[in-house]
Amino acid sequence: MLIFVVTALQCTLEGGERICQKEIYCKPWKFTSSDGRFEMDFLPILDRSACLDCKLIVSDQHQVFGRMSGMAVLDDGTKIEIKDVLCFAEKVHNRY
């Protein structure tokens, strides 16, 4: 099992749309790290979402499952290419 932890991640969709728009979670995503060491395309299959707004407590969650393909460069310079790896990405906003 490979686990990638990416910091300083910028997420955009095809055409430069931002992922904060609720209706676009199931469109293709592109993950790009600021240093260019993580370049992945993510094709969503399912958006598992939940939304609760009780004024004092707010929870808006999108756990998007799909397939990721692309390239990552490790600290030692080794390039790893993956194709169609099943994974998930999520965006969660909670306020308590």
Structural write-up:
There is one protein chain. With 96 residues, the chain is mainly β. It is 0% helix and 61% strand. It has a 5-stranded antiparallel beta sheet with strand order 1-2-3-4-5, with no helix packed on it. Strand 2 and strand 3 form a beta hairpin.
In brief:
With 96 residues, the protein is mainly β.
Cα-to-Cα separation, first versus last residue: 35 Å
Q: Give the uncertain stretches in residue-range form.
A: 1-10, 17-21
Mean pLDDT: 80
Number of strands: 5
The largest sheet has its strands arranged as: 1-2-3-4-5
Biggest sheet overview: 5 strands, antiparallel
Radius of gyration based on Cα positions: 15 Å
Indicate the percent of residues in helices.
Answer: under 10%
Structural class: mainly beta
Assign an overall shape.
elongated
Strand-and-helix sequence, N→C? EEEEE
Number of helices: 0
Strand portion = over 45%
Features:
96 residues, mainly beta, 0% helix
Note the topology:
Blueprint: E1 9-13, E2 29-33, E3 38-53, E4 58-73, E5 79-95
Antiparallel strand pairs: 1-2, 2-3, 3-4, 4-5
